[in-house]
Amino acid sequence: MPNIIIDGREVAAEQGTTLVEAARAAGIFVPTLCYLKDVSAVGSCRVCVVEVDGEPDLVPACKTPVREGMVVRTDTPRVDAARRLALDLVISNHGLNSTNFCFSCLKNGDCELQDLCRALGVEAPSFPAPEKNAPVLDDNPFLRFNARLCIGCQRCVGACNNQARNHTLTAAKRGLRTAIDAPFGPDWRATDCESCGCCAAACPTGAIVEKRRADYRSWEVGYVRTTCPHCATGCQYDLVVKDGRIVDTRAADGPSNRGRLCVKGRSGSFDFVQSSDRLTTPLVRNRATGELEPASWEAALDYVAENFKRIIGETGPDSVAAFACSRSANEDIYMLQKMARAAFGTNNVDNCARVCHAPTVAGLAITLGSGAMTNTIADITDTPDVIMMVGSNIEEAHPVIGMQVRAAVERGSKLIVVDPRDIRIASRADIHLKLRPGTNVAFANGFARALIHAGLADKAFIEERTEGFAAFAAMVESYTSERVAEICHIDADDLVAAAELYGRADRAPIIYCLGVTEHSTGTEGVMSLSNIAMCAGKLGRPGCGVNPIRGQNNVQGACDMGATPADFPGYQKVANAEVRAKFENAWGVSLPEAPGLMATECFGAMKDGRIRGLFIFGEDPVRTDADTNHVLSALRSLDFLVVDDLFLTETAELADVVLPGRSYAEKEGTFTNTERRVQRIRPAVEIEGTRPDTWIFTEIMNRMGYAQPHLSAAEIMDEVASLTPSYGGISHERLDGAEVAGRGLQWPCPTPDAPGTPIMHVGGFTRGRGTFSDAEYRASDELPCEEFPLVLMTGRVLHHYNACAMTSRTEGLNAIGDSSFIELNDADAAALGVADGDAVRVASRRGEIVTTARVSAKTSPGETWMPFHFQDGNANWLTNAALDDVCKVPEYKVCAVAVSRV
Ligand SMILES: Nc1nc2c(c(=O)[nH]1)N[C@H]1C(S)=C(S)[C@@H](COP(=O)(O)OP(=O)(O)OC[C@H]3O[C@@H](n4cnc5c(=O)[nH]c(N)nc54)[C@H](O)[C@@H]3O)O[C@H]1N2
Ligand SMILES: Nc1nc2c(c(=O)[nH]1)N[C@H]1C(S)=C(S)[C@@H](COP(=O)(O)OP(=O)(O)OC[C@H]3O[C@@H](n4cnc5c(=O)[nH]c(N)nc54)[C@H](O)[C@@H]3O)O[C@H]1N2
Ligand code: SF4
Ligand code: SF4
Ligand code: SF4
Ligand SMILES: [Mo]
């Protein structure tokens, strides 16, 4: 800590910091304009100049590092005059005239230039304004750039380069001036811009703004800190609220996003809340007309309880089931599974992890003892030596983690990408293994063999902390690089090189996602990755681990809260008598012992009459489950279907009763993100006619004869904590308090004074010794044949989310793209006579759809890919409901199709 003197005060400054940071840390005002901490420091505006003893000229505080013994003055007349002159030059160049007028600027009142002029007493420009006549670029649906207002500070460039790490917004010298090239003009679609808005958030003036700003002025709004409702990155932001409506978002410095947001969080996270399509009254199907008709809450809830009681009376509690909403809060999900278990009397309760990361929960529980991400987002992206990403399209599915992965690579981390497609990040990879879909286990076994043969197995770690290595090593012996190259369609040398790169690195996290799990061999795929990490001794320490990136905002929480057929909250087994007794005691009711049916098994059970009543809380299986015809016929076989959702989804259209629930922006609660971090959501608005989901479940429980008092979300979390060791120390009070300070708490957090656990399995695995799996490679359930010669994979694009119930309510996201397509390899397209943009028919054994061809080399010959978001040509008419043996995830990532020109 160098000691320096600022304005006569002794200040202990941190080594490596700049004068501006040292002054600010000491509470001394130094104005800045072009400087933005961690984002940009070009040192061009000179409003931060200070005097330093021994330096003849004033120095910019933002660019000057502290040195022991420095004597600094921030408030001399010379400093003041220089700052005022600098600011005068800036505003003279700000393009103010009769058409660019502060009053009409969207940033009026929230402009750093205005604030600084006031602080320094600069009232009007005194230099002649240079002529500026560049057109306003406003073709991007969310962002616009007015070059006339641009002061050349380059904070936007810093934001695009250092936060978004996208490098699409650049600065160039035009004569004496810095000109900004913003990608928001007529060709915006052709640019790589992700519309994340980080640049607009960084711009101190109205030059780059979010168009949303037209709806409010900063003095008219309030802010509500919350968690993004889309992916499990768990980004923190404020909802900006004006007159009972959300008008915008503002990024916060959350632990996982660190000031960033992606386009969905920034611009697609609130239109749906106040969309005119929201359900605002219960609907009950009129048995005579067959129509859904508005009903009172009393009538609808009575009808729900009556029918569930009737069905349970006729065929028993296990003839009903409930699906929980992983988009909703922990507190809601806890109450839903309590309703299923305590009021319905069944363990038939599940959540969308079943069609997603269930293999992670099962696979990692088998090998490590806990089915969750081992490390934290910051830990695996700050200083890794090598990142290995398997089946994770992180830039589109978890964009804010993607930005941090890009940052790691730019800082020098090596990158291995294992993905059948040329996803964008693959172009930055040192090694891209473009493997054939469905061959992860062969790849991983070959990778492990290569590690062992290169002498890179960590013998001490294996000896001390694991079991089953000998059998595993014997099993992988047949996975020679040549054999694996043939199975996976990759280069044998690349496989060995990847294993050596990973094995030699000290800090090397494995990041994986659905490209691994959504297979009939998903659980084996997950275990085979955990084999690699154990073999290399890369678990239980910083910068390593096996890191499944969970999908839905609160799917980690949905599993934690026990919305799964074999587990109570906290993965406590329903089959364990002691555990059951604890819950029976707490809930005052006897509980079923046998694990329930998994959601994907329920569809078959509906068809054969074993499941007759279903309560769906916030899921749209008609759009999202595999093999739509199968799902439709199952749901139509039901005696009674209830859907609690925000919208009349395709699934809700089939229901007997539809209940209007509340979104994340209308309720208290918590989400648990992918790194096990429990963070708060808070109500910002009220939508008339809706009810909190916990209220709905409580009403139904009482009507079914289980006495459940109405509890607040905070009280529900207290109940969770009292019954769930890993959440034992988590409460709303603590999350809202100064100690946690908005950083959330990562489970395991067993006691109210426990700090939470950023890195798991330090010193020992949850299950004691880690165990190697000896799963062999098995082919996918459905392989290409003469009739269906192409492999179809399915997945996601950046700007829409799952069934689009929420994202499709934001016009700007639809403008980026709102219809389905199929990625075809050039060679296949040529053979089929299909050109880019042509309409094509895609058929599988289960159905057919019409969509648009996108022809490129992104997929390999013989392989195709489709998003599943869109109603037109939804991929799930085609997908295969073949299930993984262990956890029954459907094989969304591989089925056989035929493509033809329409
Ligand atoms: N924009 C956006 N973000 C989302 C979502 C969304 O709908 N939209 N959904 C959220 C949810 S619920 C989830 S679960 C996550 C999912 O996030 P991801 O799993 O990252 O997304 P996907 O597009 O399903 O698939 C990931 C990758 O798997 C690759 N892949 C396909 N088959 C194989 C294979 O056999 N082996 C390997 N190694 N790779 C394969 C695909 O080419 C693709 O690049 O995203 C979450 N985030
Ligand atoms: N072909 C193919 N299909 C897939 C996948 C794939 O990769 N390929 N991925 C699968 C995966 S990983 C997943 S996770 C599933 C997702 O499948 P779903 O869970 O069915 O998809 P979502 O669109 O997220 O649906 C969430 C629903 O919850 C409602 N909702 C949101 N918040 C709340 C709330 O607070 N309260 C209430 N009551 N309702 C709420 C929304 O309106 C929406 O209708 O899709 C799966 N389907
Ligand atoms: S919106 Fe994001 S990607 Fe596009 S220019 Fe701005 S910072 Fe860069
Ligand atoms: S657009 Fe804004 S942030 Fe970018 S250089 Fe101009 S004034 Fe600075
Ligand atoms: S990365 Fe995920 S959590 Fe973060 S803003 Fe985007 S959608 Fe929301
Ligand atoms: Mo998911």
* Main sheet record: 7 strands, mixed
Under CATH, the topology of the domain at 283-356 and 554-725 is which? Rossmann fold
Number of strands: 39
Q: Regions with pLDDT < 50 over 5+ consecutive residues? A: none
- Helical residues, percent: 25-40%
* Ligands bound, unique: ligand MGD, iron/sulfur cluster, molybdenum atom
Radius of gyration from CA coordinates: 29 Å
Tally of contiguous helical segments: 29
Mean pLDDT, rounded to whole units?
96
Spatially, the strands of the biggest sheet line up as 14-13-27-26-25-15-16
What is the correct CATH architecture of the domain at 283-356 and 554-725? 3-Layer(aba) Sandwich
Return the structural class.
alpha/beta
Distance between the termini: 71 Å
Protein name: Formate dehydrogenase, alpha subunit
Cofactor: [4Fe-4S] cluster; [2Fe-2S] cluster
Family: In the C-terminal section; belongs to the prokaryotic molybdopterin-containing oxidoreductase family.
GO cellular component, one term: membrane
Key structural traits:
single chain; seven-stranded mixed β-sheet; Dimethylsulfoxide Reductase, domain 2; 902 residues; six-stranded mixed barrel; Rossmann fold; 29 helices; Ubiquitin-like (UB roll); binds iron/sulfur cluster
Furnish the topology, listing elements before pairings.
Layout: E1 3-6, E2 9-12, H1 19-25, E3 49-52, E4 59-60, E5 71-73, H2 77-92, H3 112-120, E6 143-145, H4 155-163, E7 170-174, E8 177-181, H5 198-202, E9 208-210, E10 222-227, E11 236-242, E12 245-251, H6 263-267, E13 283-285, E14 292-294, H7 297-315, E15 320-324, H8 330-344, E16 349-351, H9 358-367, H10 377-382, E17 386-390, H11 394-397, H12 399-410, E18 414-418, E19 431-433, H13 440-453, H14 459-465, E20 466-467, H15 469-476, H16 481-488, H17 492-504, E21 510-512, H18 514-517, H19 522-535, E22 546-548, H20 555-560, E23 567-568, E24 572-573, H21 577-587, H22 599-607, E25 613-617, H23 621-624, H24 628-637, E26 640-645, E27 657-660, E28 669-672, E29 677-681, H25 693-703, H26 713-723, H27 732-736, E30 745-746, E31 770-771, E32 790-795, H28 811-816, E33 821-825, H29 826-832, E34 839-843, E35 848-856, E36 863-867, E37 880-883, E38 890-891, E39 895-901
One iron/sulfur cluster (SF4) is lined by residues 143, 159-160, 164, 166, 168-169, 183, 193-199.
